[in-house]
Each structure stands twice: as structure tokens, then as C-alpha cells.
Amino acid sequence: MQRHRKTATILSILSMGLGQLYNRQFVKGILLLLVEAVGLVYFVPRLGNAIWGIVTLGSEPAHMERIGKKMVQVGDHSIYLLINGLIVVLVFAIFAVIYVLNVRDAYRNGKHRDEGGAPASIRETLAHVADKNFPHLLLTLPAISVLFLTIMPIIMAIMLAFTNYSAPNHIPPAKLVDWVGFQTFIDLIQLKTWSHTFYGVFVWTVIWAIIATVTTYFGGILVALLINQSDIRLKGLWRTIYIVPYAIPQLISLLVMRNLFNGQFGPINQYLGYFGLGGLPWLTDPFWAKVTVIIVNMWVGIPVSMVLILGVLTAIPKDLYEAAEVDGATPFQKLRIITLPFVLFATAPVLIMQFAGNINNFNVIFLLTNGDPVKGDYQYAGATDLLVTWLFKLTFNNSKYNMASAIGIIIFVIIATLSIWSYRRSKSFKEEDMIQ
Amino acid sequence: MSTKSSKYLRLTLSYVIIVVLALCALYPAVWVLLSSFRPGSSLFADSFFPKNPTIDHYKELFTSPSFQYGTWYWNTLKIATITMILSTFLTTISMYALSRFRFKGRQNTLTLMLILGMFPSFMSMIAVYILLLQLNLLDTHTALILVYSSGSVLGGFIVKGFYDTIPRSLDEAARIDGANHFTIFWRIMLPLSRPMLTYVALTTFTGAWVDFIFARLVLRSKENWTLAVGMWDMVSNFQNSNFTMFAAGAVLIAVPIMILFAFLQKFLVEGLTAGASKG
């Protein structure tokens, strides 16, 4: 007895909903038929055009043409073609998934009938979905929003890295954009003007990430140990004061810092003057600007590390210290043998993630120095620019979209490598069972 | 005797460092607060405390035609509140599903989320901009709310970590008592996850409150601006010419966030450390 399952499957392949109607599930069948109808109306005029658009990125640039008596703009806008094409393809993917599910559903219900069962009513179906597919139900809305507002833009950005979408020669609607393969990456590494900037900015990004992570991390440990000493009073007060920099929005605190460090009128140079010292070019000299961003980053970052490490410190078992005291350990030995290893072990994964975060630390650089002071031999970058702020400038100030996307992909590769490494490490740590 | 004097030395030294650090931590905030009450408009001041304090700068922010601080404040409050509600909702339901249920594709979804989080966000901004242009959503608050809320879902791993720690026997017991999934979520899990919800709500609210990059890209007309955009405009246009005004604006933006922070400090610290132990 395979009559029902076969017929239902074939019917549902022919059109969504037919199999369900055959299985006497009328509400579901009609709903699916409606989905099919809407899908056909949407895709028939669009799908072919969408794929043509993605593949060719348009055949003639936009221009005015006389149609009848009016001047009308005709021609292709490569970027609109690309994004609309992507949207249609993504919607089609969703449609295809629904189609497959529809066929599977028809087959299952047909099989159920072959085995002598009655088809489920719409109420039973809904109850079943709410019970067995509850997580899918919960995830539908977030998934759709992420698909269109995160995944689609990222796919498009990656695609842009393989086009020549950049000022001044390839900006639609006046000009077309073309696929160029890996040319953008090759230019970035081989063209003297670009490669010089890229290596310079890359090296500074790495140096910055290392120094910024190390200073804030060990600064945090020091501050935490300092106020965690058993005979320091008012611990709560000190802790609250030290958290203040964390509580002020970075937008505000960094802009304020920019004024504090102002070379001409800023109070810091004013105070240095009181001590008979000359003012420093905090933000205008390439070297001092780098020093300034690191100092300010300590001010912003140490509170976060401190909070973290204070949390870890309370988790160290007290009996470890008691045992050490019985053995006659000095405070320094206790610190070196118990506290530090414990803290380092517990926060190692955070350390690596902070390093990754610092590579992308946009706020501190952008708000404080804006990447300046400008370097004459750099392409659109300054002495303190990180890869990510350079990317920002290339996109929003200079319209070099393909270059910006290529840099974005490189940043992604760096962060991904770091994350995988950190994940492996923390896993191997766990397996070693260093701390029971 | 020598251990006692060395103890005093250590304690004195510790207190000196603690006080110096506390001054460093507070100085910028106090300085900008005092500057906002200083008459005149220049950055340079001959004394730390203003001689004739005035609140004119605050008044001007709300009355001068070139600033629409009142409107911006209202816009920001609206956007941040709706974003907070929407993103807490989206993050909670998605992380709850990913943490408490085992289904096909779960592991892949988690991996995909991790990978997506590794792309710099500015990279996709231009595509989002073109998408909003096509949907006719440029210069609207809806666009900001949608983008902020959907972006927050990917940052929800802390919430997942939190749900991972709630024992499974809890849902199983409720299932045996005949509760359905929705009841379990609504009656048992949500009340338990209050600290986590607070953490998510606070971070998303602040995120929307201070974002000036995406907001500046999307909001074109001045009456639609948010505080952060207005602030950024003020800074880039007359940072040096009207510093005291900038200071007043800065105080007004920072104060609500700091008050929120003070109330929710405990939750925030919990959230931060929860994220830490998960890596």
C-alpha cells in the first residue's frame, strides 16, 4: 500500500499544497497554494533578471534618452542590480526551503494514511508545531532579520572586494562596475602606493593591539590587587570611583580627552607649564599621538579589566593561601605562586578576545585622533590609523569601496585565525584540568 | 618592628597610588562638568573651578535655533527605548532556543553567528545603506531601530551562556506537570533570567544612545538627528570656538547613561563576568 504517499508526493512536487489537498488537509493546502501563487507572481518577472544582474553587473551605464517626447533615464546601475539580485536570490532560497518542506510534509502524511491513520486537522498540526518545532518558531523572526540586515550586507560587501567599485572611474550611475577577480587584493599588495600604506597601517595595528591589551590587562591586575589588599579600607568606594570611566559613554569621554590633550589650550599642557615644562604635541606629532592613544586607552580599558579580575580574585579558594601561610610563604610568594597563575589561567581566553577587540578598536582612534596626524606618503591614512579606521575612511570619505572591502576581508581573516587559536587553547586548557 | 614599619610603608604607598589613580579616573568627568558652568566659550581656563558659574550654556542648548537639543533628546530617547525592547526580545528568544533545545542545524547556526561576528561592522554598512535607500527608509528612525535590533542578536552569546547554566531538571519537572514550552519560557525562564535581561537591555539602550556613525549616515535632516549625531556635528564644527557649550552637551548625554549604570552596576558586573568564564 504505497498509493497515497506516492500520489501526494508527486502532486506536491507539481505545485505546493496539491499534495496536502489530496491528503484532505484543506487549510494547510490552500495556504501553501497561496504561497506558491505569490511566489510565482514574484519570481517569474524577477529571477532571470536578478541572476543576469549579478553575473554581468549591467550592460550600459545610465544615461538620458528620448522616449516619445520626454527625456527618460535608462541604463543600468550596477550596485542596485547587485543588491536587488542578492535579495531576489535570498528570497528564492527561502521559497525553495518551504517547497522542500512541503514535499516532505505531503510524503509523510501520505505515508501516515497508507498505514491507516487519519490526516491531522489544522488544529492538531498547529499544536504539533508548537510542541516539536518550538525552537524553530522562536528563531524565525530573529533569523529573517539577521538574514537581510547582516548576512546579505556581508555577502554583498565580500562581493564588492572582487569588483572595481571605486572613485573616480567606477561610480554608478554614470559608470558601470565590473567583476575583476582578485585584482583589488593584488593592487593592495603590489601597487607601491597602496602596499606602503597597507604595511604601515598593518604593523601599527598589530603593535597597537599588543600594547593596548598588555597595558590594560596588567593595569587591571595591578589596580585590582591594590584595592583587594586585606587592610585597605573603603574598598567599595574605590571600586566605584574606578568604574566611573567605564560608565561614561566613550563618545563623550574620548571627545573630552581630545580637548584635554589639546596642544595649544588643553589643561594638560597648561599644568605641565606650571611645573616649568614645555607642552607636548600630544595629538599632532606622529610619535606622541601614538603615546596619547595608548594612555587614553588605558584610562578607558583598565576599569573593565579590573572588574573582571576582581571577580576572579574572589573565586580563589581561601585555603590555598592558608596552606601557603602555614608553609611560611611571604606575601610576594603567595602572589607569584597562587594569585597570578590563577588569574592568568581564568582570564586567558578573555585576553585573546581583548586582543582581537583592540585590532578593531574603532572608537579610541576615530574619536581621539581621527587617525591623524596625516602622513603624506600614505593613501588616505594617518599615523595612528588602524586597519578598521582606514577601512572607514576609504568607504565614507574616499569612495574606494572595493579596497575597503578587501581590507575588511583581511581583518576578518586575522580575527578568525585568532579566535580559532584561542578556542583550541582554551579547550586544551580544559582538558588538562589545571585547576580542579 | 621592621615588619611593622614595612607594613606601614606598604599601606601608605598603596593609599597614595589609590588616591592618585582615583583622581585620574575622576578628573576628566569633573573637568568637563565644571567647564560646562564656565562663562565664555573658550577651552582655555585660568582656574580649575569657574569663577562665576552660569547655566547659560544649558539654556542655550535648548533654546538656540541652531541646536534642537530638545528634539534630539526626544528622538534619542524614543529610538533607544524601542531598540532596547525589540533587541532584548529578539536576543532572548533566539538565545533561549539555541541554548535549551537540541535540533538539526543548531551547531551550524552557532558557528555561523560566530563567523558573522568577526566581520568588521563598517564593511557591511554601505550595503545596509543601499538597502535602506531602496526600501525608502533613509532618514527615518525605523531604519535605525531595525538595524540596531537585528545587529544585537549576534552579540547575544552571553545570554546563551546564561541559559546554559540553568539546570535542565527544571524544565523537565515542569513538562511532567503538563506545562507547554511557552509556559515554561514565560513563567519559569524569564523570571530567572532577570539579571541577564537587564544586562542586555542596558547595553542595547546605551548602544543606541551613543551611536553616531550609523545614525549620521542614515539621518539626513536636522530635526531627525539623535543626540550623538548632533554632538558629533557640534564637535566637528565648533569644538574650539565653543568649548563650554560642547561641555554642557556632553554632560547632558552622559548623565542618563551614568544614572542607569549606577542602578544596574551589579547586573552589569555579573554579565561581564559571566561572559568571561564562557570565553
Automatic annotation (TrEMBL), chain A:
One record GO biological process: maltodextrin transmembrane transport
Transmembrane stretches, start-end: 26-44, 79-101, 137-162, 201-228, 240-261, 287-316, 337-357, 401-421
Gene3D superfamilies, per the entry: MetI-like
Localisation per UniProt entry: Cell membrane
Membrane topology: Multi-pass membrane protein
Domain ABC transmembrane type-1: 202-422
Keywords in alphabetical order: Cell membrane, Membrane, Sugar transport, Transmembrane, Transmembrane helix, Transport
Major place of residence: membrane
Domain of life of the organism encoding this protein: Bacteria
InterPro entries, A to Z: MetI-like, MetI-like_sf
A single GO molecular function term of this UniProt record: ABC-type maltose transporter activity
GO cellular component: maltose transport complex
PANTHER family with a match to the protein in the record: GALACTOOLIGOSACCHARIDES TRANSPORT SYSTEM PERMEASE PROTEIN GANP, MALTOSE/MALTODEXTRIN TRANSPORT SYSTEM PERMEASE PROTEIN MALF
Family: Belongs to the binding-protein-dependent transport system permease family.
Name recorded for this polypeptide: Arabinogalactan oligomer/maltooligosaccharide transport system permease protein
TrEMBL record, chain B:
An example Gene Ontology molecular-function term: ABC-type maltose transporter activity
CDD domains associated with the record: TM_PBP2
GO biological process, one term: maltodextrin transmembrane transport
Keywords annotated in UniProt: Cell membrane, Membrane, Sugar transport, Transmembrane, Transmembrane helix, Transport
Pfam families: BPD_transp_1
Keyword Endoplasmic reticulum: no
Domain ABC transmembrane type-1 span(s) in chain numbering: 73-264
Topology in the lipid bilayer: Multi-pass membrane protein
GO terms for cellular component: plasma membrane
Primary subcellular site in the record, as a coarse category: membrane
Subcellular location(s) per record: Cell membrane
Matching PANTHER family: GALACTOOLIGOSACCHARIDES TRANSPORT SYSTEM PERMEASE PROTEIN GANQ, MALTOSE TRANSPORT SYSTEM PERMEASE-RELATED
Record family assignment: Belongs to the binding-protein-dependent transport system permease family.
Record-given protein name: Arabinogalactan oligomer/maltooligosaccharide transport system permease protein
